[in-house]
Design a protein that fits this description.
Two copies of one chain form a homodimer. Chain A is an alpha/beta fold. The first copy, chain A, has three domains: about 45 residues, Single alpha-helices involved in coiled-coils or other helix-helix interfaces, CATH 1.20.5; about 220 residues, Rossmann fold (3-Layer(aba) Sandwich), CATH 3.40.50.300; about 50 residues, no CATH class. Helix content of chain A is about 50%, strand content about 10%. Chain A has a seven-stranded parallel beta sheet, sandwiched between helices. Chain A is globular. The interface between A and B is large, with 63 and 63 residues. Chains A, B: It is an enzyme of class 3 (hydrolase). Chains A, B: InterPro entries: GTPase_ArgK (IPR005129), P-loop_NTPase (IPR027417). Chains A, B: Pfam families: MeaB (PF03308).
């Protein structure tokens, strides 16, 4: 692959070049990693999009919401890319984006680009390649990059850490017991969208929305928020209700953050965060790519789990053995 | 210092030996680190205590609560150690344990041991030396080790990760706006104690308690909890109300977790967690103890913050420069 040619094609909006480049950044082969790094360096960092993270468990209507939301944006002349982060290796239930046909209209829209989530996944790698795929979409001139994740494990946190706005899509809940939102994630979300505010479910959706609004209200104010955020709003993807209003709210929040300087500060903070994550991950990868180190790591972890040794002692053993101070 | 003699003294309940050993684990000097490691290895891991984490912002009455709670436990024949994790370098307001005189009775109780928090602090090191101080107190035969932290930054999470039971002490709040609990921390706490349920504040405390009970109820059930946990209870440290009941709840939760095998699984998980943290921290420490590496790390972080390079690219530059794959 010629890096310069590919970069030009991507910047000129060639969708196949973009798709191939995303495949490249998804690869774990050393040769592909090097090419991906060269391509990203060639593309630079000057074009940027509004990065929206969207988390929701299977069944809340994510694909319907994304289709409606995306179509609304493209109708306004905006170009929209949709990426998926799915930490599960199986496709059953979780990876809605694995099936483009569920977003039939949007997938055929020339101003939209939908990328299903890759199959084999490890979280560290997922975060990296998702950030790189975002960078590729930005270089390709998309105005909005929507990153979708199922609300499982650390993927939500990772997506929140790479988003300008982070949204949580929820279904109406029957009783308060059923509203299973992880507490940690409420800390990071900017807006809760309660979907299915339509038909028989509408009253439930409104109650659920009020419940979440008061739960959010109970929590500590964040300096990065205007007074009325984070907020909970009810939407119906099916009937296309409330989505334009939700978009207005997103834009208001974005404007507020940009005007207050929080937008840039947040992106800088995120870049620093990912740099340190990459250094940590890279060091560990170097360490564990050595099979002798890996064997010792496993043996020591086992000793620690059995209480034979303390975590600090075991770590010191490993490090002094394989990575002495005087290199 | 003779390791064997010190270990014997600690195991025989010599409080001065224990205090000196804690000073040793708090030291960052290489020679002291080696002695601390040898001492911990000599002491082994067979004696263990109930580890209770307690978080609460300044002003909620932590010292009064700890004094009452500690005195109640020692009256039952239990030996109680109190440690502090305070990530702030200043003592103003935060570090209640910096002032033993606020726990006058408990500090003079022969069955209690109170250790103020050390002054200079970095979080990684704080977690490590607190875990080592816990181990020393356990070796000294304490039945309960209470680890106190102010609810700031990552210290709460670190304390939660080294506790068998994690409690949040809160003050009554006037309106729902004022109840500033970080959302993330509700995810990890086992019990919320609303203090100052006495005098004029009692009605407010009861309302605050009910608010938190319903907020906890709204959240997702955790597999490590019996059906009625996490729960919120009202206490008055001043009037010594509700503390015995809270202790009954803690014991009920402990028994439930022990019977269900969750207790051991949790400790094993925590040991694994800290092992990997120690490996990560140790690797980074090795890397950054080299001034050339540190300079390059700072330069690259700056480039990343300015958007001149991407996090992954910068990390790769650093790692290939200083830690090539083929050692």
């Amino acid at each position: 692959m010629d890096i310069k040619t590919t970069a030009d094609k991507i910047q000129n909006g060639d969708r196949r070049a973009l798709a191939r480049a995303i495949t490249l950044v998804e690869s774990t082969r050393a040769q592909d990693r090097a090419a991906a790094a060269a391509l990203l360096a060639e593309l630079g960092t000057h074009r940027q999009a509004l990065r929206i993270g969207l988390s929701g468990t299977p069944g809340v209507g994510k694909s319907t919401f994304i289709e409606r939301f995306g179509m609304m944006l493209t109708a306004q002349g905006l170009r929209v890319a949709v990426l998926a982060v799915d930490p599960s290796s199986t496709r059953s239930g979780g990876s809605i984006l694995g099936d483009k046909t569920r977003m039939d209209l949007l997938s055929r829209d020339p101003n939209a680009f939908i990328r299903p989530s890759p199959s084999q996944t490890q979280l560290g790698g997922v975060a990296r390649r998702t950030r790189e795929a975002i960078a590729l979409c930005e270089a390709a001139g998309f105005d909005i990059v929507l990153v979708e994740t199922v609300g499982v494990g650390q993927s939500e946190t990772a997506v929140a850490e790479m988003s300008d706005l982070f949204l949580l899509l929820l279904a109406p809940a029957g009783g308060d017991e059923l509203q299973g939102v992880k507490r940690g994630i409420m800390e990071t979300c900017d807006m809760i969208l309660v979907n299915k505010a339509d038909g028989d479910l509408k009253p439930q959706a409104m109650r659920t929305c009020a419940d979440y609004a008061s739960a959010l209200h109970l929590m500590r104010k964040r300096p990065q928020d205007p007074p009325d955020f984070p907020k909970a709003v009810a939407v119906s993807a099916l009937e296309d209700h409330g989505i334009a209003a939700a978009w207005d709210e997103m834009q208001a929040l974005a404007t507020w953050r940009k005007d207050s300087g929080i937008w840039d500060a947040r992106r800088t903070e995120q870049a620093r965060f990912w740099f340190h994550e990459e250094v940590r991950a890279g060091l560990l990868a170097q360490l564990t790519s050595d099979s002798a180190v890996q064997a010792q790591l496993n043996a020591l972890e086992n000793d620690v789990a059995l209480g034979k040794t303390r975590p600090g002692q075991a770590a010191e053993t490993l490090i002094t053995q394989f990575f002495p101070r005087n290199r």
